Amino acid sequence: MAKKIIITVFSLLFLVYLVFYADTFNLNFNDQQLETLIFLFKVYIGASLLAFVVSEIFQNYSQVDKLWSTIPIFYVWYFTAESGYDPRMILMSIVATIWGLRLSYNFGRRGGYSIYFWVGEEDYRWKELKRIAPFLRPRLNWAVFNLFFICLYQMGLVFLTTLPILAAWQGTNDINIYDYIIALLMLVFIITETISDQQQYNFQTKKYAKIDLGEKLTGDYKRGFVSTGLWSISRHPNFTSEQLIWIVFYLFSISATGNVFNWSIIGCILLVILFYNSAQFSEGISSAKYPDYKIYQKSVPMFLGFWNSDWKK
User: Fold this and answer.
1) In whole numbers, what is the pLDDT of the chain averaged over residues?
2) Is the CA virtual torsion 82, 83, 84, 85 positive or negative?
3) Is the pLDDT confidence value at 41 over 60?
4) pLDDT tens sequence across 249-288
5) Is the dihedral of CA 283, 60, 67, 3 positive or negative?
6) For residue 6, what pLDDT band results from cuts at 50, 70 and 90?
7) In the prediction, which pLDDT does 27 show?
8) Residue 9, SS3?
9) Residue 306: how many CB atoms within 10 A of its CB?
10) CA 261 – CA 245 distance, rounded (Å)
11) H/E element holding 212?
12) Apex 188 CA angle, 272 and 150, nearest 5
């Protein structure tokens, strides 16, 4: 796990260097765009430090999760307002807001939010990480990991994934039919993410209800994990949709600039790397907990690919 974290962090450093220092891409920000970027960068740093302080004081390390789906809404609308409400940027902000509100609802119903903002359900993976990585158990070591990876890295990733809207602001092409197709495609993946989250929520709710009532568990309930619906064609349909949402968001910058590869691609690349490593870590926990999970892994792709619909037979 330590190796994956190091690779993930160095991938960020390398891509930032590639974009901002190696002259690979021509940034060409005007004064207003640069001023807006710097202000929102300060917001990112402030939000990261706030998440760090709160998490350390109350020892709940899911503070970034509470901002993951909310602060991007602020970023995109601030860029849009500073642009004078460019039509393409308005469209981008609308679909990003739909994404954020939907994800916030899903996070909230699982106990992620509370009237006391510093509490709420903590991601189980942080406790598991401490268990399998003894070097992170000392208080100081964990605080360093919390600051640089959980807070600064992940909040930085959230910031970077929204930056295609800045690249769109730089573009000279007017809004066109391609932008509406992109928006529609983004909505499709928001819908598939909604369906997969709902299927998981329904399964977990019913599973624990059956356990509480002492009912006999059969099928997926006996196996312990959901493998029907969208989960029969992807082991992580919600993660798959989340990555595709932000890859599609990047397409707006292509429509605006005419450049297939521009500097704002850094966000969706890093997002894919993070989700791949996160999925692998989660699956390590699941395969140790559920005996049939290894069979599921061999028959159903992690994200996209070929699958065996008869794997349970």
Assistant:
1) 89
2) negative
3) yes
4) 999 999 999 999 899 999 999 999 999 988 998 998 899 8
5) negative
6) low
7) 78
8) helix
9) 8
10) 17
11) helix 177-213
12) 30
Two tokens at 264? Answer: 């704002």
Distance CA 310, CA 313 (A): 6
| In the predicted structure, residue 60 carries a pLDDT above the cut 80 | yes
Q: Which two tokens stand for residue 53?
A: 């302080």
Q: Find the helix or strand (DSSP H, E) in which 158 lies.
A: helix 154-161
Task: Measure the CA–CA gap between 155 and 209, rounded to whole angstroms.
Answer: 35
Q: What does 160-190 look like in DSSP terms, one character per residue? A: HHTTHHHHHHH--SPP-HHHHHHHHHHHHHH
- C-beta of residue 169 within 8 angstroms of C-beta of residue 35: no
Res 15 pLDDT > 80: no
Q: How many CB atoms lie within 10 A of CB 253?
A: 27
Contact 244, 189 (CB under 8 A): yes
With the C-alpha atoms ordered 248, 254, 260, 262, is the resulting torsion angle positive or negative? negative
Structure-block tokens of residue 85? 């409400």
Q: Which residues does 75 contact at the CB level (< 8 Å), separation at least 6?
A: 40, 43, 159, 162, 165
Q: What's the pLDDT tens digit per position in 151-185?
A: 999 999 999 999 999 999 999 999 999 999 999 99
pTM for the whole thing?
0.89
pLDDT category of residue 127 using cuts at 50, 70 and 90: confident
* Domain-wise residue ranges, the chain: 2-119+127-299
Specify the DSSP class assigned to residue 151: I
